[in-house]
């Protein structure tokens, strides 16, 4: 059974790489194979799915869709641009702003919110928007690891390691991964300043966006506050974070309906949820559960330990930089979903706390996507926006920004995580 499980898993990954547009169905088909072949018992299939993660993603996506529709992000961007002296600082400000938003909002949604502002500036000044949109994209990817709700990979880690919202800020008496990401952001901003040193055109005034509905902003802030409060309450249900996110989204939809008396606003909000990603994750949870049941995860873990000769620093280094490399070419969601139980098993074999390896995995897998234009969904989205505007961006052009940005940010994180939690 173990050999069959390995073959199915390898075939699944190959198909995920070849056919990204149908990867959710590939993951579900693979999950069905594990169950029908008896590798994973039927009664365990349902429980291997982390429903807290599924609910958090669905609820957060719904709240974010209402937040974007309210035009609040566009207004915040306009207010920031009022204070910038030239294009270089406008791009830096927008990338930092995208990073702040992305710490609480999905990376793709962040790019969709902020990139149009960069396009508008570029059109008014008659300059190329390529550098500014790429800067926004890589910054949004960077900050996805900063909080529990910043990215799907963070939600996966939080669910698997039972981390609450505050654990990302302060963990067991030490600064959390949030501060590691901020240090990486500061270092990578210096890289952007150097790369954009020639963009000295003054910024002309931009008309302010008008926001009429502030309730979605209240929902988003309320979600963060409730997640923090829930972290202080003992013995809460395992799905408490998901329940909070979904409940607030439902409240937002109900308010929208009573304002408009139009049921289509509810169906529109529900359509904004990325069911494709949710189905992909559900399938992957079952696949990884099947691998664990078959003993494959333990075997992979033992290989890591044997290769490193029981040296924790070597294992940590291998996990971080292998994650950077793999995430540059494959989607980090299935990678992290697969590696979390491997990391947990490695720590059990070595009889150590797993958290330094968890955080190394998260930082490498999240930031590694910035190495190439296909390494992260936000990058693909950014290049799609530029393509629609008439700008075809070559991989080499993207990587002129992506590679130095990523290497600096990951190196800072790699060093900090080791010294904080080793």
Automatic annotation (TrEMBL):
<feature type="transmembrane region" description="Helical">
    <location>
        <begin position="89"/>
        <end position="115"/>
    </location>
</feature>
<comment type="similarity">
    <text>Belongs to the CitM (TC 2.A.11) transporter family.</text>
</comment>
<keyword id="KW-0812">Transmembrane</keyword>
<dbReference type="InterPro" id="IPR051475">
    <property type="entry name" value="Diverse_Ion_Transporter"/>
</dbReference>
<feature type="domain" description="Citrate transporter-like">
    <location>
        <begin position="13"/>
        <end position="356"/>
    </location>
</feature>
<feature type="transmembrane region" description="Helical">
    <location>
        <begin position="239"/>
        <end position="254"/>
    </location>
</feature>
<keyword id="KW-1133">Transmembrane helix</keyword>
<feature type="transmembrane region" description="Helical">
    <location>
        <begin position="342"/>
        <end position="361"/>
    </location>
</feature>
<feature type="transmembrane region" description="Helical">
    <location>
        <begin position="176"/>
        <end position="196"/>
    </location>
</feature>
<protein>
    <submittedName>
        <fullName>Citrate transporter</fullName>
    </submittedName>
</protein>
<feature type="transmembrane region" description="Helical">
    <location>
        <begin position="275"/>
        <end position="292"/>
    </location>
</feature>
<keyword id="KW-1003">Cell membrane</keyword>
<dbReference type="InterPro" id="IPR004680">
    <property type="entry name" value="Cit_transptr-like_dom"/>
</dbReference>
<feature type="transmembrane region" description="Helical">
    <location>
        <begin position="217"/>
        <end position="233"/>
    </location>
</feature>
<keyword id="KW-0813">Transport</keyword>
<dbReference type="Pfam" id="PF03600">
    <property type="entry name" value="CitMHS"/>
</dbReference>
<dbReference type="GO" id="GO:0005886">
    <property type="term" value="C:plasma membrane"/>
</dbReference>
<keyword id="KW-0472">Membrane</keyword>
<feature type="transmembrane region" description="Helical">
    <location>
        <begin position="398"/>
        <end position="421"/>
    </location>
</feature>
<dbReference type="GO" id="GO:0015105">
    <property type="term" value="F:arsenite transmembrane transporter activity"/>
</dbReference>
<dbReference type="InterPro" id="IPR000802">
    <property type="entry name" value="Arsenical_pump_ArsB"/>
</dbReference>
<feature type="transmembrane region" description="Helical">
    <location>
        <begin position="48"/>
        <end position="68"/>
    </location>
</feature>
<feature type="transmembrane region" description="Helical">
    <location>
        <begin position="367"/>
        <end position="386"/>
    </location>
</feature>
<feature type="transmembrane region" description="Helical">
    <location>
        <begin position="312"/>
        <end position="330"/>
    </location>
</feature>
